Amino acid sequence: MAETNLNLFVPSQPEDDAEMLPERFLSYAFHELRTPLTVVHSYAQIALDKLPAGPENETLRRILNRMISQGEEMVEMIEELLEASRIPLGHLNLDQNEIELGELIECSIECLPDDLRPYVTFPSSTRPYPVLADPPRLQHAFDILIKFALYEQQARELSPNLQIVYLSNVPTTTIKLHLNAPGLLLEARQDLFDLYRPVRGEPKFLTKAGFLDIGLYLARGIIEAHGGRLDYTPELSGFSLELPLITSS
After folding, report:
1. What is the predicted pLDDT for the residue at 3?
2. Residues near 237 by Cβ (< 8 Å), separated by ≥ 6?
3. CA distances (Å), 78 to each of 31, 83, 136, 212, 220, in order?
4. Mind listing the pLDDT tens digit for each residue in 40-94?
């Protein structure tokens, strides 16, 4: 009788699968965190919608609004952490399409609070600036930079003033975010894009960027994933952002 050998061992995972384990675990953990938050947020919204009008319910209305707002902030924090975990691994997995860069920047400006929007100057261009991009992610990077620039000026009790200009140099375009304000202190510039800046223990030189203060790290990671570059330029007292353009062959 022929002997039959049964392999009852689970095949070893390829090395690249092992490298993916930290990201897969974090994705799983963040999903588990997000699920109950979404349920609480939904119940609070339903309760708010069904709450009868009247001054006797104003306290409860404020509580429910606060619950909804904090729930949204916590979801944003989870998204920030998940994105931050992907950047060093190079696993942003961009869903790229050809877009007009000017339209994306205009969307970021339109999403600003009403009291900040008038302080941003972005002149319309007579020529297109097509780029290959993951639109939600690239817009998120611009959202972070624009809000940080404006809030940082407010924190220093300066009148907000942000000028966004193109400096085209095919095959790339450079976008300058010029702050009409004194430059950041050297101590602040050194760790500006560092993921661990919030916990390094240095004095707080800057306003927060994002809910967890890792927004500038995310912005640089997103832009670099698009083949671009993001730096702080003391001469501008602002940001210099370079992205590759789509050029006709």
Report:
1. 46
2. 178, 179, 181, 182, 183, 184
3. 9, 9, 17, 10, 19
4. 888 999 999 999 988 888 999 999 999 998 888 888 888 888 888 888 888 888 9
Residue 148 tokens, joined: 């940080």
User: What pLDDT does 4 receive?
Assistant: 45
| Residue type for position 245 | L
Q: Quote the tokens at residue 46.
A: 């339903």
pLDDT per position as a tens digit, 190-229: 788 988 888 876 555 567 787 778 899 999 999 999 999 9
CA 161 from chain centre, in angstroms, equals 21
d(CA 128, CA 132): 13
Task: Give residues with Cβ within 8 angstroms of 26, minimum separation 6.
Answer: 81, 82, 85
The three-class DSSP label of residue 108 is helix
* Helices 15-50 + 58-86 axis angle, to 10: 170
| Helices 215-225 and 135-155, axial angle in degrees (round to 10) | 140
| DSSP line for 140-187 | HHHHHHHHHHHHHHHHTT----EEEEEEEETTEEEEEEEESSPPPPHH
3-state secondary structure of 232: strand
Largest CA distance in the chain: 90
Degrees (nearest 5) of the Cα angle 53, 58, 59?
Answer: 145
The number of beta carbons lying within 10 Å of the beta carbon of residue 134 is 19
Q: Of 141 and 190, which is predicted with more confidence?
A: 141
| CA–centroid distance for 21 within its chain | 24
